[in-house]
Amino acid sequence: MSKREFQTEVSQLLQLIIHSLYSHPEIFLRELISNSSDALDKLRHLTLVDEAYKSLPFDPRIDLELDEEKKTLTISDTGIGMSEEDLVSHLGTIARSGTKNFLSQLSGDARKDSNLIGQFGVGFYSAFMVADKVEVVSRKAGEDQAWRWISDGKTGFDIEPAERAVAGTTILLHFNEEGAQYANSWRLQEIVKKYSNHIAFPIFLTYDKSEWDAEKKESIKTRVTEQVNAASAMWRRSKSELKDEDYKELYKSLTGGGEDPLFWFHTRAEGSLEYTTLFYIPAKAPLDLYQADYQTGVKLYVKRVFIMDDSKELLPQYLRFVRGIIDSEDLPLNVSREILQQNKVLASIKTASVKKILSELKSISTSDPEKYQKFVAEYNRPLKEGLYSDYANRETLLELVRFKSTKAEGMTSLADAKSRMKPDQKSLYYITGGTEAILRTSPLLEIYKKKDIEVLILDDDIDEIVFSGIDKYDEIDLKAVNKSSAGDDLKDEAEPEKAETLKPLLEKLKSTLGDNVKDVRASTRLADSPSCIVSDEDEPSARMRQMMRAMGQ
Ligand code: ADP
Ligand code: MG
Predict the structure, then answer these.
(1) Which residues, at least 6 apart from 380, have a Cβ–Cβ distance to it below 8 Å?
(2) How far apart are alpha carbons 128 and 65 in whole angstroms?
(3) What digits encode the pLDDT tens for the residues 41-50?
(4) Which GO terms describe its molecular function (predicted)?
């Protein structure tokens, strides 16, 4: 047996892991399973492309074996395996220079900051969070000799020849006090399902299952081996292989509900960035849609390994109703929340995903208007939030939102309203600032009715804020009928004389109302009612001022 010392950085890293990461020690299993999955991927690749490996048997699987009494767990795979040299260099040094530099800069209190640790792969060494002794037996594919690597995670490791029937790696963990909680089959199944359910290879757990023996009237233990993960990573298969039922099934397993989604968009990007996205639109809007502490519904995976499902960074807030998966090949497994916020890879995936979702919605709006109406009934309002917050996609969003109108049944699009414009109509008009009933009977609409001009009824509470920032749709001015300039469009010729006759009345009203109004003017916008209140062009209306305050602006 030969004794080796860890590279200084490894000792530092181990200290950091053991003393900083205790909040989530369960991730040790995710890391070890993902290493096994990588090793299986590597061997599969070689058996496909390399003559020397083509004849080797490849029976990919990952086995977990639990001994509850001894408090040990083995994680075995039939992957590429490691030679003696590999064991020394992969499990005794830190190859990545970035990590080395990072560690050398860490000092004192900074080391205790567990956020920092997410900046480099914890990987294999995370085993030492839960084990006081780790044994690795590995045989490299194509070699006959296997090797055993043993360490207590303190100063170094021992290495010696060993036996292994086939190529692959077995990691034996002797759980420490902290790790004892994982010597439990339920707990292990739960962790595997949580993080590794969609690893492409089957993961089996062998353990002593307690079952009730009806004849003997006692619980007996049987050693069983059961597959724990779904092993599908269904989203990684090509669209042509998948049936609607597959998509619906995954949706139900993601959301834990029984309802079918309204629709889904499955995209695979290859090129400078490699990722897969599968987004679902739920048939009914999530109940917490309008709560500040809403739950996000998009899960982030890295190479089929589950990373997190509660990051508000994955999609913009206005698309918070979307459910589904982002699976990236380019992010590190241990990407932290803090890193996600400024990560360029994720930013590109996010931008492309938003574009994709919006363009798919747009094509549904023309190809299946009936289904699109169902979508609008649930999600028109969040899309309007997007008009306010997502400047880059405003054009598309304007085509996606729908409006009530004085001229159309149900909901109408701006495109349709535009197509109904009168030959001499200068702008598209809308009214905001109240309930549908109040708006529909507003005196402000009289002149439009008289002239047979359509007015869109914007009765959502955010409409005023959102649309006051949008002056055009497809080259046409959008105007609020309660703003002074909308009236200018409708001016008729007789006005100057009329204003002259009304002058004394206007003066009188102005002095009576005093500071309560900015001005009193003669108007052509009314047909039957004697007067109405409008806002100056550049001034936020009273209601809007209220809303802005509520939104903290
Ligand atoms: P990473 O996976 O990010 O490279 P790890 O600390 O998890 O970092 O693993 C270090 C290296 O050890 C891996 O890159 C791999 O070469 C090797 N290794 C770890 N586990 C296995 C395994 N089960 N089979 C083969 N090689 C492995
Ligand atoms: Mg790893």
Answers:
(1) 401, 402, 411, 460
(2) 18
(3) 888 878 877 8
(4) ATP binding; ATP hydrolysis activity; ATP-dependent protein folding chaperone; unfolded protein binding
The tokens describing 33, both together, are: 């399973």
* Rg, Å, the chain Cα set: 33
Name the token pair of 415.
Answer: 């495109």
Contact 300, 326 (CB under 8 A): yes
- How large is the angle between the packed helices 8-20 and 97-105, nearest 10 degrees? 70
Instruction: Tell me phi and psi for residue 292, to 5 degrees.
Output: -60, -30
139 lines ligand 1 (CB under 6 A): no
Q: How distant, in Å, are the alpha carbons of 228, 261, 311 from that of 294?
A: 31, 19, 11
Q: CA separation (Å) from 102 to 97, 111, 113? A: 8, 11, 13
Amino acid at 160: E
Alpha-carbon distances of 523 from 321, 442, 447, 507, 530, rounded to whole Å: 45, 15, 10, 15, 10
Tell me if 357 sits within 8 A of 364, measured CB to CB.
no
- The closest of 381, 370, 250, 404 to 321, measured between CA atoms, is 381
Instruction: Tell me the per-residue pLDDT of 242-297, one tens digit each, with 9 for 90 and over.
Output: 999 889 888 887 776 678 999 999 999 998 999 999 999 999 998 888 888 888 88
Query: Which residues are documented as binding site?
Result: 31, 35, 77, 82, 97-98, 119-124, 169, 337
Query: What is the pairing mode between strands 297-302 and 203-213?
Result: unpaired
Closest CA to 322 of 370, 382, 365, 367: 382
Cross-strand pairs, 223? 208
- Looking at per-residue pLDDT, the higher value among 487 and 352 belongs to 352
Least distant ligand from the CA of 80: 1
Nearest to 138 by CA among 123, 150, 126: 150
Instruction: Give the pLDDT confidence score for residue 289 in this predicted structure.
Output: 87
Task: Kindly report, residue by residue over 417-472, the tens digit of the pLDDT.
Answer: 999 999 988 899 999 988 999 999 998 898 899 889 999 999 998 998 899 889 99
The Cα-based distances of 292 to 5, 288, 295, 318 in angstroms read 52, 8, 9, 12
Buried b (16+ CB within 10 A) or exposed e, 308-319: bbebebbbbebb
Cβ–ligand 1 distance for 82 under 6 Å, the answer yes
pLDDT at site 295: 84
Tokens of 491: 């001016």
- The token pair that represents 331 in the structure block: 């992010």
Residue with the smallest CA separation from ligand 1 atom 13 is: 90
In 3D space, the residue among 76, 92, 90 whose CA is nearest the CA of residue 33 turns out to be 76
Protein residue whose Cα sits closest to atom 16 of ligand 1: 90
The response to whether residue 121 sits with its C-beta less than 6 Å from ligand 1 reads: yes
Going edge to edge, which strands form the sheet with 427-432? 404-405, 455-458, 427-432, 476-480, 472-473
Residue matched to tokens 């084990």: 131
| CA 88 to centroid of ligand 1, rounded, Å | 12
Find out whether 464 and 541 touch, Cβ atoms under 8 Å.
Answer: yes
480: helix, strand or coil = strand
β-strand partners of 323: 280, 297
ipTM surpassing 0.90, yes or no? yes
